[in-house]
Amino acid sequence: MDLGLNGRWALVCAASKGLGRGCAEALVREGANVVITARGADELQRTAEALRALNPAAEVRAVAGDIATPEGRAAALAACPQVDILVNNAGGPPPGDFRDWGREQWIAALDANMLAPIELIKATVDDMAARDFGRVVNITSGAVKAPIDVLGLSNGARSGLTGFVAGVARQPRLAGRNVTINNLLPGAFDTERLRKGWAAGAARTGQTVDEIMDKRRATIPAQRFGTAEEFGQICAMLCSAQAGYLTGQNILLDGGAYAGTF
Ligand code: NAP
After folding, report:
1. Number of CB atoms found within 10 A of residue 226's CB
2. Which family does it belong to (predicted)?
3. How many angstroms is it from 192 CA to the middle of ligand 1?
4. pLDDT score, position 232
């Protein structure tokens, strides 16, 4: 199926690695032009080269910067001639005990995982509506549906974004003009972020990384970790021309790990 993305412009935040990169790859394969961001310029440039090789017809621009800051967002927006597709993403907050977190830690989590996406939505959706096409995909977390104790900063910040999106996605001036806003909730995906967590767990417990991975894998009905590639493909489907009636949803991609009916 042609997803109707050829020639569209996408801003994909936090995309030099992992899930963001998976989204950028899928969009480029579908013919979209992309602006990708990350803080580390070298890795970002390498990823931009790899994306260009995937589809030489697509234009790929790389903007180094911190998407959690106003300057980082302004640079990313300035590089994108028009934002037809916005994929909101940033690194997740660190794990810990809420007793150790003060205002500084909370503000950092809110800046990256709640306020940055809200600011970018604010900067783009009305122009999308004026053009009668827009797709916003926020990468959040399965922890929004099934909170993880030690990820309290993430649970809190992402739940705030989720509540905001539930309201704004249903504004007739957006939904009625073919602008959709949805959240993609990853379960366990084999990315650098998870690998670092497994390595830290191995150092803490004396188990090997393989043992830790095997135990975690066994808890997932699909019996495997997700890949950034398949995550990106679902993102591209949400961004497709065909997905205009799908908005305000929280879509869990977790191989069946969440055991609830709804
Ligand atoms: P990852 O492999 O560590 O990749 C993170 C990417 O984001 C890198 O390109 C990183 O590059 C960039 N980045 C991080 N902070 C940024 C910032 N402030 N501004 C711009 N770019 C930034 O992580 P991932 O596994 O893909 O995770 C992506 C998001 O999904 C995270 O919020 C994570 O918490 C969430 N999540 C992931 C999983 C999973 O299984 N992987 C599960 C649930 C939720 P630089 O470091 O160079 O900036």
Report:
1. 23
2. Belongs to the short-chain dehydrogenases/reductases (SDR) family.
3. 8
4. 98
Q: In the prediction, which pLDDT does 249 show?
A: 98
Q: Is the CB of residue 194 below 6 angstroms from any atom belonging to ligand 1?
A: yes
Res 123: pLDDT: 98
Q: Residues for the chain: how many in total? A: 262
- Counting from 1 in the atom list of ligand 1, the atom nearest the Cα of 187 is 42
Give the tens place of pLDDT for each residue, 25-83. Answer: 999 999 999 999 999 999 999 999 999 999 999 999 999 999 999 999 999 999 999 99
| Cβ of residue 94 lying under 6 Å from some atom of ligand 1 | no
Distance from the CA of 165 to the center of ligand 1, in angstroms? 20
Distance CA 138, CA 13 (A): 10
CA 131 to centroid of ligand 1, rounded, Å: 30
Alpha helical stretches, state H, the chain: 18-29, 41-54, 70-78, 103-110, 116-130, 152-168, 172-175, 192-205, 209-218, 228-238
For a substitution probing ligand 1, which of 191, 198, 253, 258 has the most ligand atoms within 8 Å of its CB? Answer: 191
With a cut of 70, list the residues of the chain below it in pLDDT.
none
CA distances from 25 to 32, 53, 138, 200, 203 (A): 10, 10, 16, 29, 33
User: Cα(124)–Cα(163) distance, rounded to whole angstroms?
Assistant: 19
- Order across the sheet with 134-139: list the strands: 60-64, 33-38, 9-12, 85-88, 134-139, 179-186, 250-253
Write down the pLDDT at residue 199: 94
Strand partners, 35: 11, 61
